Amino acid sequence: MGVLHLDIFKHEEPDLAWVSYKPRLTLHVHHEIWQDARLGEPKSRFILAHELGHIFLHGYFRQAFSDDETMHLRAWPEEERAEPQANWFAEQFIAPDHLARSCKSTTDLCLKFDFPEDYADHRMTRLKDCRIVHVGTACQSCANFSLVQHGSRLTCEICGVTMECL
Predict the structure, then answer these.
(1) 72 pLDDT more than 90
(2) pLDDT value at 65 more than 50
């Protein structure tokens, strides 16, 4: 896509940040969001990570899944639209699954990763719903290596035995 240009603006706009692709790839960010992100403010960092998600995941060709309702293709499910995908990217960028799984609560997630409170509940729900295969851990009942984590429990996909995670 070429060089990323940065436009830090001070005037009022309906959005605090967005990406444009023509005439050149540009990340537009309100100066307060940019300054707050530089200071480590969680929500501003999330906004910037979200916009990077659009650049990395979508490019110009995914406009049909953007926030602009008039450009949506109605046949696509919500999770395949650009906004939820960009939020997923930001969640992973700030608090990757393999590290965020150590968090026991939204407060823990916010403190460990400077994660924005507005998105912490959603992130914790994703972590709990995530299917984690435990490679190298044998089932206590049938000895098969087929344990899958669902929240705080392990379930054997062969015999169905469920146990607490250690």
Answers:
(1) no
(2) no
Q: What is the mean pLDDT of the chain?
A: 83
pLDDT band at 113 (very low <50, low <70, confident <90, very high): very high
Amino acid at 34: W
Per-residue H/E/C for the chain: CCCCEEEEECCCCCCCEEEECCCCCEEEEEHHHHHHHHCCCHHHHHHHHHHHHHHHHCCHHHHHHCCCHHHCCCCCCHHHCHHHHHHHHHHHHHCCHHHHCCCCCHHHHHHHHCCCHHHHHHHHHHHHHCCEECCCCCCCCCCCCCEEEECCEEEECCCCCEEECC
Please give the torsion angle defined by the CA atoms of residues 152, 154, 155 and 156, in that order, rounded to the nearest 10 degrees. Answer: 170
Q: Side-chain half-sphere of 27: how many Cα atoms within 13 Å?
A: 20
Which pLDDT value is given to residue 90? 95
**Which contacts qualify for 5-14: CB closer than 8 Å, 24 or more apart?**
8/34
**Residue 1 and residue 21 in contact, taking contact as beta carbons nearer than 8 Å:** yes
Helix 42-57 / helix 82-94 crossing angle, nearest 10 deg: 120
pTM: 0.71
